[in-house]
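Design request, tokens follow.
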């Protein structure tokens, strides 16, 4: 009975124990189970971990998301081939902060290898590489390996077992593919940088900055030159600031490429706010990397779909360029979502979830370049349309312009005959018209009289009340002169304070009476300006046409003598 119980216990123990990874002639093993233990204390040593039996069986494709824990992985490998063999345990990621390989023989550590940026030595040329452990397995030998991993980046990774040839092939293929993709992106970046220098269009600058940050991020995560060696740990994690900058410049590029400001100021301001938020995250990541990158990954899963929605709204608003943007963001968002889900441990780690984002970025950048090229095409078409429209409307515009010039000419002629301050005729039309009327009057033997007015002590008004008040006096007097005038009368301002009324068919006595009437009205006039009251008087000389007169100058000269007489005998007078 006791033997039966003992046999059952041994059988159950065998079932619960990990089956070793059996190696025969395979040159690579990519799918197998391993044991894992989560050390939340992060303080367990190799001696302590070998005494723990609470390991769980998992697949070799690891996806534990962002975590502060240390993970221990246990491998039991057995050589079933008929000869000694050489194999390598290889990690697929080089972004994990610290990786420790412990090779045990008879429960003693016989080999310990360290990898990862966390072990970089200050001042030395530290190489960023994917960790591996070389195993020399004798015939029928079984080895136990523990791997300790901690990470600031997401805890995702996969383990592989290769022979030397397959190990070299893996590194060669990985480096070749990534170098091609990154080199292609760099070519697109330089091309658009040249266009920026030529056009000074900030859309191209945002494209270049977005592309450079994306290239720096992917290059540092892949260990491609120039981000394959670092002087210390801090230097490596400084490159991580490129990750939030990728989203910041992508947001600015979206705003500029799609001209969001033209159809929605709300979305325009929202995108600017998002870019500022990610610039702040980039600065924060320089001082406290892990929480900044965790927030960046969490928010990017919301921001990227929002950018796709913005592209859709722009397309619905009639922006043809948005179709390129939608396809570009569609590719990138689909594969970036897989990367994000894997980063948070919500999706199994595999080549697509890990490296698909690079393919998505590559397709995105090509489509963005096409969008920029199509944008130039649209601008050229718009330019040609404007030129054609201008050409078609040129004749109409010339006719309109000619008409405007003719109207302007008429207005100028009117202005040339008018005194700007009093709105009365000036000397030119007065003399031209009057001389013709004088010739007619002499032929018909009819009367003509001229009234020459002068504002008394006008200089005193200017000196006492100011030139502005003096201008008001001239305007009021000019208005009074035009009141009750016949249509045949000509009223003009011929000097600073001198005014003329030319009256056809008017005898001297009638002209005198008109002048007296005007003088009395002025005497009773009060002008209110700047809380002041101005009173003034005028003097007038009257002359009538004689047989000897031939031109207006002669009448004005005689009227001026009478005006001078009125001034010298007390002012505020009319003398004929």
């Amino acid at each position: 009975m006791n033997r039966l119980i003992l046999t059952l216990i041994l059988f159950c123990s065998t079932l619960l124990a990990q089956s070793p990874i059996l190696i025969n002639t395979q040159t690579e093993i990519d799918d197998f189970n391993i044991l894992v233990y989560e050390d939340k204390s992060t303080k367990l040593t190799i001696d302590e971990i070998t005494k723990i039996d609470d390991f769980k069986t998992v697949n070799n494709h690891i996806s534990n998301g962002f975590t502060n824990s240390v993970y221990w992985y246990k491998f039991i490998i057995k050589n079933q081939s008929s000869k000694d063999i050489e194999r390598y345990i290889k990690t697929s990621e080089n972004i994990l902060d610290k990786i420790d390989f412990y090779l045990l023989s008879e429960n003693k550590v016989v080999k310990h290898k360290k990898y990862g940026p966390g072990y970089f030595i200050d001042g030395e040329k530290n190489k960023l590489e994917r960790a591996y452990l070389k195993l020399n397995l004798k015939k029928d030998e079984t080895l136990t390996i523990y791997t300790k991993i901690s990470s600031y980046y997401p805890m995702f990774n996969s383990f592989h077992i290769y022979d030397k040839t397959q190990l070299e092939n893996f590194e060669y293929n990985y480096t070749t593919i990534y170098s091609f993709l990154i080199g292609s992106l760099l070519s697109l970046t330089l091309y658009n940088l040249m266009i920026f220098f030529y056009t000074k269009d900030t859309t191209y600058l945002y494209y270049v900055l977005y592309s450079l940050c994306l290239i720096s991020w992917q290059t540092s995560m892949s260990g491609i030159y120039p981000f394959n060696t670092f002087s210390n740990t801090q230097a490596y994690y400084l490159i991580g600031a490129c990750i939030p900058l990728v989203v910041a410049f992508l947001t600015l590029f979206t705003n500029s490429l799609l001209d969001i400001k033209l159809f929605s100021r709300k979305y325009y301001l929202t995108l600017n706010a998002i870019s500022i938020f990610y610039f702040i995250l980039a600065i924060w990541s320089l001082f406290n990397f892990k929480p900044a990158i965790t927030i960046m990954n969490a928010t990017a899963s919301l921001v990227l779909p929002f950018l796709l929605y913005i592209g859709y709204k722009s397309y619905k608003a009639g922006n043809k360029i948005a179709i390129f943007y939608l396809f570009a963001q569609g590719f990138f968002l689909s594969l970036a979502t897989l990367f994000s889900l894997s980063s948070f441990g919500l999706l199994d780690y595999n080549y697509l979830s890990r490296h698909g984002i690079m393919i998505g970025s590559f397709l995105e950048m090509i489509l963005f370049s096409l969008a920029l090229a199509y944008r130039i095409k649209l601008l050229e078409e718009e330019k040609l349309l404007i030129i054609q429209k201008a050409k078609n409307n040129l004749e109409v515009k010339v006719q309109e312009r000619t008409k405007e010039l003719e109207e302007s000419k008429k207005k100028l002629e009117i202005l040339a005959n008018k005194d700007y301050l009093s709105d009365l005729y000036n000397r030119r039309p007065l003399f031209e018209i009057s001389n013709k009327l004088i010739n007619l009057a002499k032929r018909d033997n009819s009367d003509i009289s001229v009234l020459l007015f002068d504002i008394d002590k006008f200089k005193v008004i200017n000196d006492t009340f100011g030139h502005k008040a003096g201008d008001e006096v001239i305007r009021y007097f000019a208005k009074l002169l035009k009141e009750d005038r016949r249509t045949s009368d000509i009223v003009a301002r011929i000097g600073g304070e001198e005014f003329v009324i030319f009256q056809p068919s008017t005898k001297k006595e009638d002209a005198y009476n008109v002048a007296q009437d005007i003088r009395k009205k002025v005497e009773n006039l009060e002008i209110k300006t700047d809380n002041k009251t101005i009173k003034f008087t005028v003097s007038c000389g009257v002359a009538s046409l004689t047989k000897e007169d031939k031109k207006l100058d002669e009448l004005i000269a005689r009227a001026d003598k009478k005006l001078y007489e009125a001034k010298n005998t007390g002012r505020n007078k009319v003398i004929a």
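Comment from the thread starter after seeing the answer: thanks! The radius of gyration is 50 Å.
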